[in-house]
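Predict the structure of CBS domain-containing protein.
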Amino acid sequence: MLHRRTVGDVMTKEVVTLRPHTPVREVAALLDANDIAAAPVVDDDGAPVGMVSASDVLRHETGMPDPQGQEGNDEHAWGKARARTAGLLMSSPVFTARADWTVPRAARELRRRHVKQLPVVGDNGLLTGIVSRSDLLDTFIRSDAEIRGEVEQEILGRILGLGEGTVAIEVRDGDVTLRGHVPEPRLIPVVVGLCQGVDGVVAVDAHLAAAG
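Done. Here is the predicted structure for CBS domain-containing protein.
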């Protein structure tokens, strides 16, 4: 079976975390020092209980609910602007992902929740990593050589058992062109479908025929 990358494959495992009592000044310093846009807040057991983003810190620093001064009548937003600790500044409840989620599922969840990062938790609810939009995008931004290698080794070789050189593969800017022969006509759509499922493939142009 073709391996599809999961959240566990692309997530960051060494996560910068905050505690509910972490002072806001320290939060700002940690985000800046680690060049990250957000960090999860975890409890004593290591379970995520909220998220603090750079925009949350900016709201606090400006003393306004948001940098443009909108949502001025939102008491919760004003409370975050006056917060002194990560626990008061964080957004909660926190939305989480699982390591076995596929990349498309995680992307849909980010979009549905209107967030840029998701803490990743295990079966016990404890933090195991964090996945961001950029992590997911990197999955699809692969070199032509990487794509060609996966098509050749995984699909044509391991899955279909075709001999080396049976099908010529050309990859240019994610477009895959296949030329050659396969043992049976019914394998042609199978080859095309499997290639289309490879991360980073934009399109497949197959010039294949049945051998014999």
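The chain is about 35% helix and 20% strand.
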